[in-house]
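Record pair follows.
FIRST:
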Amino acid sequence: QVQLVESGGGLVQAGGSLRLSCAASGRFFRTYAMGWFRQAPGREREFVAAISLSGSRTHYPDSMKGRFTISKDNDKNTLYLQMNSLTPGDTAVYYCAARTSSFSTTYYFSTYEYDYWGRGTQVTVST
């Protein structure tokens, strides 16, 4: 069992940046493929970014390519999401997720593919 704790959310003006962090407990962080998702009020949870367990491969939906960057520090047991050029449409609760993986270069981008979830951190982008 792994526990995930997100941090770094807050209020930012449109055009600004935030870096989210997700700290993981346990000794097996290197074996986890991970991802970020978000959920706005009244909407389904949406895929934001994914990274393979080695950190060598990443994936984003088209709407976030070039603005968001996911990274994984296996020495610090921490996942990051750098978000730039934020818009009010990015306002949501952001969740990190993890799953064990046997493949060093495989990423996952569906909610049902993940076993562990954090409680989320609120990101609010004002106009």
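SECOND:
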Amino acid sequence: QVQLVESGGGLVQAGGALKLSCAASGRIDSSIPMGWFRQAPGKERDVVAAMNWSGRSTYYADSVKGRFIISRDNAKNLVYLQMNSLKPEDTAVYYCAAHPTKSPYYYTARTAYEYWGQGTQVTVSS
């Protein structure tokens, strides 16, 4: 089993920044792809950013490209999401997710991930 715990969410004004962290524990393999998703009230849970095991291959949703950065520290089993120039439409619960097996690829489909954190709320005020 793998446990994921997100932290770093909160309330921020538009234009501000937050850095989310995801701590992985349990039977975690540093070679597994990771992703960040978000879900706003009444909407689907959508991918925000994803990366392969090394972090060298990344994906960003168009809505966050150029503003968010996904990164990882495999030695510490940590994944980060640096969020800059935040907008009110970024308001959502943000989830960290882990793919179940080793892979050199990143994944954008929600169904590709087996393990999920409990989520952390990000609220951006205008």
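COMMENT: The chain has a mean pLDDT of 95.
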